[in-house]
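step 3/5: co-fold with pyridoxal-5'-phosphate
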Amino acid sequence: MTHTPTFRDHSKSLAFVHRDSENISPSYTRSYPFVMARGRGSEVWDVDGNRYIDFTSGIAVTNTGHCHPAVVQAIKDQADQFLHMSGTDFYYPPQIELAERLNHLAPMSGPTKVFFTNSGAEAIEAAMKLARFYSGRTRFLAFYGAFHGRTYGALSLTASKAIQRRGFAPLVPGVSHAVYPNPFRNPWPGSEPGKAALDYIEKQLFKTAVPPEEVAAIIVEPIQGEGGYIVPPDNFLTGLRRLCDQYGILLVLDEVQSGMGRTGKFFACEHWGIEPDIVCIAKGIASGMPLGAVIARSEVMSWPPGSHASTFGGNPVACAAALATLDLLEGGFNQMAAESGEHLMARLRRMMETYPQIGDVRGKGLMVAADIVTDQETNEPDPALRNRIEEKAFDHGLLLIGCGANCIRFVPPLNIPRSLLDEGLDLFERSLVESID
Ligand code: PLP
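step 4/5: write tokens
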């Protein structure tokens, strides 16, 4: 997407963008030239001094806002002690304390154990290896529209956009995909999508191409993220749990984006009361420090010393940031996300009544998307309009990012003050109006 800013001075930013293009991999997908200088809470400033409201949280990462003082203090305190000692070969308290806290919060009723990584994709890799190791089975079932990351194992599960896979085959063998039930664009018109999706797995896939006794794990996002913030029907995840129990398959939840309070609960799966065997988290866990984790039932996390590890995974500074993040989330940020999310959805739904270009508003907590369409009669996706809105919003001082082919996601920090949320929504509405042909 090319972009010419129209309203504010971006000269320093554009100079950086030029240097970036000369020096940095062209594989990234920036929509507009936001070059960050600093951030506080839900506000950020670029190198030209322009202020923006951040409805992206650095892609659902800075859940406690930019540079929350408690998180920054925890990072400084730990940095004063030591930066690294590799938890793979040594011990240190922040990693152990964080594992205890995560095990306590885990959405499983029995005992659990934690494996630390640096990123979401690495957490998925670890979950795949663990699932194969524990079950002795080889296959995986994932979903169309899923995004689980870009390393080879994770990419083999990812089926979000063809560009993410094109040119990279062969991928990890043994991965099959099923259809994720999308209530707004129901792939089975006339049928209830949750039941249809489950039937497709059990009555088609398991009977033809994917023998269930060979499936190590079903890996699924409780709310599909990059795929378009698709909230499945209520029967879907409970149905997957039932299938997993019936066929001895592990249920792996990818809560990399939906976890850490984003949906108003610690884990999105708590909205449906289901328990995974393995859950993967990253993004919001350490408010912006690189950290990921796999939490598994203790019985499942049974691999021996030497079987899996990562030098930087569970870095002490990142763990300290995560401990401070957990204090904040448990201290009320989850609740704030639930309340602000209701306000956000209500305002977007009111806009839907005025603007036929918003076909659907969906989400939970502060994981919300607006589906941008040509009109509400056909609900034809309008990616070009979505892109124009994003660019216009940037000009007006609001950072937005897309998801799916044509959606805009609203993922501000969980503690965004109501006044900033409303200011941002006003800017969104203005940007929408100015972008309509
Ligand atoms: N899983 C989900 C649901 C994600 O949204 C992402 C990233 O967007 C990943 C995994 C990969 O995480 P990372 O980019 O940290 O590797």
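step 5/5: annotate
DSSP finds eleven helices and 15 strands in the chain.
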